[in-house]
Structures are given as C-alpha cells and as structure tokens.
Specification:
alpha/beta; Helix Hairpins; six-stranded mixed sheet; 13 helices; 15 strands; 14% strand; flat
Length: 672
C-alpha cells in the first residue's frame, strides 16, 4: 500500500492543506508543535474515524470551526482509492458525518462505521477486530508518538491475541473451540443415541413372542374360516330355495295385483255406467228444452241491414250538402237585402240602379232556400223510416243467431246422448269380461295359498343360518385383525430394532469420532499452533535482535523476545526490567520491536495489504548522536515501499529520500 496524498481541512492547527507523498522514505520535519503529528492523526482518522478513548472529535476539529474533513488518496494493489471522512459540530458535540470511498473513479457513500468496515476489508484485517479497543493498524503500521513504548509494555495477553490474529494463528484456537463444541454436541448425540437403543433386548424378546403368537393365530384362523365357509354354503342353499319360492310368490302377487286391478276396474266401470245413465237423462231433458226454444224462433227472417246502413249513410251525406247550400244561400240573401235597403254596395260603393231586378234575384234565392228545406225534410223522413227498418233487421239477425245456436246445441246434445248410450254398452261388455277374469284368478290363487307359509318357514331357517354366519364372520374378522395387528406390531418391532441397531452403530461411530477429536485432533492443533507461534517468535526474535544490536552497539546489553513476545533484556549478565533502561535504550527496544513486527509481517503474511508501509512518530526520542547515525542504516535495510517519519531532529534530513517541511505561524500550520 502507498499513501499518495492527504488533504486536511480545519483539522487542529491546519486550515486547508494538501500534501503529496512519494514512494520511499519521507520525513515530516519541523519544530516541536508545528503540526507534524497532526498529519499522521489525520491519516489515521481518514482510515478509521474517531477512536473512543484514543482521539475524539474535539481533539481534531479546529477551534471556532463547525466542520472539517480529511481526504486520503491511496494506491492499493494498483487501484486508486480515495477516502473522505468528515466532522461536524452539532449543538454542543462534535460528531462524524457520512463519508465516501472512491475506487478507480467509482464513488460510494458510507456511514462512519460502514466506512471503517470497508477499510478493514480493503486492508485484509480480521473483521472480528473491528470493534476492538486496540487498533491492528497501530501494531503493524503506525503508533502515535506518546504510545511508541506502550507496544512493548502492553498487556501480555492482549499483545499475544493481536499477534495471533495478525499471523492467523488464532484460527487454531477457533478450531479447538469448534472441535470442543462438536465434542459437546457429539456427547449429547451419544446420550440421545443410548436412550434410543437401551431397550433393544426387550424389543427382541417381544419380537420372538409376536412371531410365536402369529403361528397360533394362523391355526385358529384356519379353523374359523372353515366353519364360516360351511355356514356360507348352508345359507347359500337356503337362499337358492327361497329364490325359487320367491319366483312363485312373485307370480302369485302379480295375480293378486291383477285381481285387485280387475276388481277396481269393474267397480270403476260400474260407477261410469251409473254416471253415463244419469248424464243421458240430463241430456234428454236439456234437448227437450232446446227444441221448445227453437220453435219460438220460427218467424225470424234474414234482412239486408248492411244495404240499409249504406243507404242511410248516403242520405246523411246528401243532407249535409243541402245544409251547406242552405247556409250559403241564406247568407247571400242577407247580404243582397242589406245592399237593397241601403241603396249602395258597401264593398265597391256603387249605387243600386235597378232595384226591381235586385229584388227579383233575392226572391229567386229564397225559392231555392225553400226547395232545399223541403229536400232536407224529405231526407229526414226517409232516414227515420230506414232507422226503424234497421232496428227490425238487427232484431231479426239476433233471433237468427239464437236459432242457429239452438240448432247447434241440439245437434251436440244429440251426439252426446248417442255417445253416452254407446259408452254404457261398451262398459257393460267390459264388465262381463272382467267378471269372468276375476272368477278365473280367484280359482288360480287358491293353489298358491300354501306357498307363503312354506316361504316363511324357510326364511326363518335362513335367518338363523345368517346369524350364525355373522358370528363366524366376526370371529374370522377378529382373528384376521389380531393377525394384522400382530403383523404390524412385528413390522414396527423389526423397524424399531433396526433403528436401535443403527443407533447403536452410530453411537459407536460417534464415540470413535469423539475419541479422535479429543485424543488426537485437539492435541494436534495445539502442537501445530505451538510450532506456528514458535516459527513466528523465532523469526521475530531474529529480526528484533538484529535491529536492537544495530541501534545499540554495546556488548554489555542485549535483548531478545520470549515465547510470549515480551522483550527480555540482559545487562551486564543480569536480566533487567524494561523500566530500568535509559530513555534512548527504551526507544531502541520499542523501535526494534516495531521494525521486527513489520518485517515479519512482510515476510510471512500475504493477506494484509499494509505490510509495505511504516509510519513512525518521533522514533528517535532520547537517541544519542551515534544512535541517530544508526537510523540511516535501519532505513536502508527496511526495504519498504514507503516509510513516513515524523522527527524534529535536523540530522534526519539526510537519512531520507524526501523531506516535507512544516511550519506554524499565527496558530496556522502549513507546508513550506
């Protein structure tokens, strides 16, 4: 991994600043308090955000500002990665805002916790350390200035846990935990399996008893079936005899029904004859009445009343025309009389020159009126006469209709009377034949009188045999059910025994696996873990001793790392505690420890992608001039892609490939 640049805005003493980082060794140089370590804290914040108990938002946000951000650009396996993380002041607190990660130009927004998880995945760090208080990044890449020596003096158990995770050795512990969980589960399975086959002998004894019962039941079933078959045969014989008798009874019953039918028909015919006789008498009476009525219509004659109506219609039209002419002539007479009396025409204004001629014309018109009135009177007289004639014609027409109706009714009643007499003759003939049939059937039925009694006896015998057969059938069904129950129980027992034997075999296999896990597999993982830890420890110890001896060339003091990765210091032949060392010696131990850890990670781990980066904050605290010279050799031998060092030592400028100078003026840090 390579840090390409970092841009910070409103972070501590910085307002706005961007620094480009080349590959190789880089020195952040400047006076104490100029803002060098702030740049490293900004890098860590961009990657992991605010760390509870380590660094807070108020430690980073510049006083008087309400928002800040850090944008970090990285090169990871050839991919360009940008990470931006933001701070904002909300009421009285300073919190992280959402940020983003951009990979090869493709940007995604994330919440602070999501962004941290993405960084862990990108770096190849174990995700189960995501919420741990101790950052893996601070063990492998960067430790703040004031915590440089805490790596050495940290809690032994925490340090071992982190080293196991770094080198993926903790997986053996997880494997053992999983194996112990499996052993616990297998023990539970064994206990469960034992409960499944603990009654296997009882089941086997029960199975033997069921097989013996099956033989006894089969014999009994054979005997019961034999008795049932004999009963079935006897019932069948009786049923055949009943069938024959039943056929005769059917014939007899049919004859009885025929007799009943004939008797009913005879009675019905007799009633119909009586009804026909009564009807004939009634028809004769009605016929006599109709003939008397017909005589009263003898004088009726047919008249042409349609022609009369036509003549009357013509006279009415003529009368109407006469009346119209009467009105017109009367109006004309009135008009002419007015002109004659006035002596002048009101219409044209001319005077009457010949009054006599005018008067003659009026008299002639009056004669016409008199003639019309005479004609109208004659027409009315004729209409009156024709009306009377029309009334008489209609009366005659009605009488003729009644005469025709009476003649029709007489014809109908005569036909009905003839039909009634014919029906009486037919019914008398039918009843004679029916009477003969009744006598014949009564004679035949006397022969079947004994059959019903015999049928009843046979039916009772058959019923007793059927009851006996039912008992036999029940016995057979009961024993068959017992056989079936025995068979099912046998199958269940066989299945249970088979399952018990399978459970027993499985319990033995589970026991073997359990024994293999506890006696072989778990001890094997412990042995592998010890060898793996020993390999890491030996490699770590070799590099630690090399870096320590390079930094401190004193034959009277030497240092190594024990199996718990704790530094062991020998001074003048005696083991001494780390706290008894001088400031420069403590720094040398801490720096050698950090460099050894970084070197071993580079050699032994492929998954972690921060193994070619090292960030050191004031790594030479307390170093003498001679020790500072040794740092040059250390940097040359590291062989890392990028090393970023913070130091205020002027001598360090000549040890690195690039120098970034930082100054602080008026409480504002900037790159020179």
């Amino acid at each position: 991994m390579l840090i390409k640049s970092v841009e910070i805005h409103n972070i501590r003493s910085y307002l706005q600043q961007k620094i480009d980082f080349p590959a190789g060794s880089i020195l952040l140089s400047g006076d104490i308090g100029s803002g060098k370590s702030t740049m490293l804290l900004a890098i860590e914040f961009a990657l992991f955000g605010i760390q509870r108990g380590e660094i807070s938002g108020s430690d980073l946000l510049r006083h008087g500002k309400r928002e800040a951000y850090v944008e970090l650009e990285l090169d990871i396996n050839g991919k360009s990665v940008k990470i931006r993380r933001c701070l904002k002041k909300s009421n009285d607190s300073i919190v992280q805002d959402s940020g983003y990660m951009e990979i090869d130009g493709v940007r995604q927004d994330f919440s602070p916790s999501e962004l941290k998880a993405r960084v862990y995945r990108m770096f190849g760090y174990p995700l189960d350390m995501l919420n741990k208080k101790t950052l893996l990044f601070r063990y492998t890449v960067y430790t703040p200035q004031e915590q440089m020596k805490e790596v050495v003096s940290a809690d032994s158990q925490s340090r071992l846990e982190i080293i196991r995770k770094i080198f993926d050795i903790d997986k053996y512990g997880r494997i053992r935990d999983n194996a112990r969980t499996i052993i616990t589960e297998l023990n539970a399975v064994q206990r469960e399996l034992r409960t499944l086959f603990r009654n296997i002998e009882e089941k086997k004894n029960e199975l033997r008893e069921k097989k013996a019962d099956a033989e006894s039941l089969e014999k009994k079933l054979f005997e019961e079936r034999k008795e049932r078959d004999e009963a079935m045969k006897a019932v069948a014989e009786k049923q055949q005899e009943l069938g024959r008798l039943k056929e005769k009874i059917i014939v007899m019953n049919e004859k009885k029904r025929s007799l009943t039918r004939l008797e009913t028909e005879f009675s019905s015919n007799k009633k119909r004859m009586e009804t026909a006789e009564h009807g004939a008498k009634s028809l004769e009476q009605q016929l006599a009445m109709l003939e008397a009525e017909l005589k009263s219509y003898a004088h009726a004659r047919k008249m042409d009343y349609a022609n009369i109506e036509k003549t009357m219609e013509e006279l009415r039209r003529e009368e109407k025309e006469k009346l119209k002419g009467h009105v017109l002539i009367t109006e004309e007479i009135t008009r002419l009389s007015g002109i004659l009396n006035n002596g002048i025409c009101r219409t044209c204004g001319q005077k009457v020159h010949e009054p006599m001629a005018f008067k003659q014309h009026i008299d002639m018109e009056k004669e016409n009126v008199a003639k019309i009135e005479s004609d109208i009177s004659q027409i009315k007289s004729r209409l009156s006469a024709l009306g009377a004639e029309l009334t008489e014609a209609r009366k005659n027409e009605l009488l003729l209709e009644k005469k025709i109706h009476a003649e029709k009714r007489i014809s109908e009643f005569t036909a009905l009377l003839e039909k009634s007499n014919e029906e009486k003759a037919v019914l008398a003939g039918e009843n004679k034949k029916i009477s003969e049939g009744i006598i014949a059937l009564e004679s035949e039925l006397k022969e079947y009188a004994l059959i019903e009694s015999y049928y009843s006896d046979i039916e009772q015998q058959c019923t007793k045999l059927q009851q006996k057969l039912i008992v036999q059938e029940k016995n057979v069904s009961r024993i068959e059910q017992m056989c079936e129950d025995n068979r099912k129980t046998t199958i269940i027992l066989q299945s249970d025994i088979r399952k018990m034997e399978e459970a027993k075999d499985r319990a033995e296999r589970v026991s073997a696996v359990n024994q293999w896990l506890s006696s072989f597999f778990i001890p094997l993982t412990e042995k592998i873990e010890r060898h793996a830890m020993l390999a890491v420890q030996q490699e770590f110890n070799r590099f630690f001793q090399d870096w320590f001896n390079m930094l401190i060339e004193d034959e009277n003091i030497n240092a190594s790392v024990n199996e718990n990765f704790e530094p062991v210091i020998n001074q003048n032949g005696y083991e001494t505690d780390y706290t008894n060392l001088s400031g420069g010696e403590k720094t040398s131990v801490a720096l050698a420890y950090r460099l050894a850890l970084n070197k071993v990670i580079n050699i032994m781990i492929e998954g972690i992608r921060t193994n070619d980066l090292l960030i050191m904050d004031e790594p030479t605290d307390g170093f003498s001039a001679e020790q500072l010279d040794k740092v040059r050799d250390v940097l040359q031998q590291l062989g890392l892609r990028q090393v970023i060092i913070v130091s205020h030592e002027q001598k360090m400028d000549s040890f690195v490939d690039s120098v970034v100078r930082i100054e602080k003026e008026n409480h504002i840090s900037r790159v020179m």
